[in-house]
Automatic annotation (TrEMBL):
Acyl-CoA dehydrogenase C-terminal domain: residues covered: 245-371
Coiled-coil ranges from the UniProt annotation: none
Highest taxon above the source species: Bacteria
Family matches, as SUPFAM superfamilies: Acyl-CoA dehydrogenase C-terminal domain-like, Acyl-CoA dehydrogenase NM domain-like
GO CC annotations, alphabetized: cytoplasm
Record keywords: Oxidoreductase
Family designation: Belongs to the HpaH/HsaA monooxygenase family.
Pfam family, one: Acyl-CoA_dh_2
Name of the molecule in the record: Acyl-CoA dehydrogenase
Matching InterPro entries: Acyl-CoA_dehydrogenase (IPR050741), Acyl-CoA_DH_C (IPR013107), Acyl-CoA_Oxase/DH_mid-dom_sf (IPR046373), AcylCo_DH-like_C (IPR036250), AcylCoA_DH/ox_N (IPR013786), AcylCoA_DH/ox_N_sf (IPR037069), AcylCoA_DH/oxidase_NM_dom_sf (IPR009100)
Organism listed in the record: Streptomyces capitiformicae
Length: 395
């Protein structure tokens, strides 16, 4: 466990933090198969991330949190994704979820981080039949989160938007922070990609949550759901997630470059070195440019957040624009990946080749409901033309 720097000791620089993430790429890549088989990041991955302090990007400062700029955060997560997109997704979800908890009272953050500043967090929406009821000292909560990334390895889960009932009537909505030891996990993630994220279903049944770990919005204020989850913070959280996928595309680029450097021939051709082929050179150049473009879109959005004054919400148009840049980042990354697969040929799809893992992770992860292009494109058009209301929940 990385110790909290003593008072007065300088925190790691931006370059040091990014270098720590980059240094983990070979380990993370070597564990890609193990991560897929386990359904979660390999234990060696998690230990290395803790040792590097990369589970402290958004931990409260009083508990050893680093809080680098958003640009630095996405660069770090992208480097983790370069080694393993599923592991990067866990780091991303953790960073966003930890930041969501910073609005809780100091008493709660002390309970959460006091003995474990490297505690792992997740956040997840709940099925419609979730419910919370007031009891002395807090709430009784029953809820099922169908897609809870990292629910088998996390310490805490922030469950979002649970209806609050009183006398059989909905009187508001709540977010609650629960310990994963109180939840039941069902292995439901049987999907072609992102297999190492452990995005399974978790259920809490009649669990008591003390008031300090709850955030309540009364029924009269349900049009102000931003009090449960800031729209700007949610867009920022989405950016965390996509950075792991852009990093995965970069990892695929690394693999193809390494293959070409080993003098890979082109079957059924006169080329004994694929790298000598002008067609291959062009395809690799185009793939590199597309993935570079994806990174530029990603970093542009990060810079927008870094320029935003503290405790300020982005406007509706600005949020929609940021999401459009995010969707464009993933679209360019997918286009670049296709060119890399064309260069690699059928060998790139071999089970033993990590390239096909990067490909599957990108294809699945980039279609997450909050990152998917069709709705983002429609919402951006509505915002630009001032056509309301927004079609995306929370955004």
């Amino acid at each position: 466990m990385t110790p909290i720097p003593p008072a007065g000791e300088q925190a790691p620089t931006t370059q040091e933090l990014i270098a720590r993430a980059s240094a983990l790429v070979p380990l993370l890549r070597s564990n890609i198969t193990a991560t897929e088989k386990l359904g979660n990041p390999a234990p060696e991955n998690l230990a290395a991330l803790r040792d590097a302090g990369l589970f402290r990007l958004t931990t409260p400062p009083d508990h050893g949190g680093l809080h680098p700029s958003m640009r630095t955060q996405v660069q770090i997560i992208s480097e983790v994704g370069r080694g393993c997109a599923s592991t990067g997704w866990i780091v991303a979800n953790h960073a966003a979820s930890t930041e969501f908890t910073l609005i809780l009272p100091d008493e709660a953050t002390q309970e959460i981080f006091g003995d474990n500043p490297d505690a792992i967090f997740l956040s997840a929406g709940c099925a419609p039949d979730a419910r919370a009821e007031r009891v002395p000292g807090g709430l009784r909560v029953s809820a099922r989160a169908p897609y809870a990334s990292g629910c088998e390895i996390s310490d805490w889960a922030l469950l979002i938007g649970i209806p609050l009932y009183e006398g059989g009537q909905v009187k508001g909505a709540v977010n609650v922070l629960v310990a994963l030891g109180e939840a039941k996990v069902e292995r439901t993630w049987n999907v072609a990609g992102m297999s190492g994220t452990g995005t399974n279903a978790m259920t809490v049944t009649d669990v008591f949550v003390p008031e300090r770990r709850t955030l309540v919005v009364e029924k009269d204020n349900l049009d102000r759901l931003e009090e449960l989850l800031s729209p700007t913070e949610l867009v920022k959280g989405n950016l965390h997630s996509l950075s792991s996928l852009v990093g995965g595309a970069r990892g695929a680029l690394d693999l193809v470059r390494e293959t070409l450097a080993r003098d890979k021939p082109i079957a059924y051709s006169t080329y004994r070195r694929a790298a000598d082929s002008p067609a291959v050179q062009q395809a690799f150049t185009e793939a590199t440019h597309l993935i570079d473009t994806a990174s530029l879109h990603m970093l542009h959005v990060a810079d927008e957040f870094d320029a935003l004054p503290p405790h300020t919400e982005l406007s509706r148009v600005a949020r929609a624009r940021a999401r459009m840049h995010s969707a464009s980042a993933l679209a360019r990354a997918r286009e670049g990946m296709q060119k890399l697969l064309d260069i690699a040929g059928t060998s790139g799809f071999a089970h033993a080749n990590a390239l096909q893992v990067y490909w599957r992770d990108l294809e699945v992860g980039s279609r997450h409901a909050m990152l998917g292009l069709p709705m983002i494109l429609e919402d951006y058009g509505r915002a630009l033309l001032d056509v309301g209301p927004t079609i995306t929940q929370y955004h």
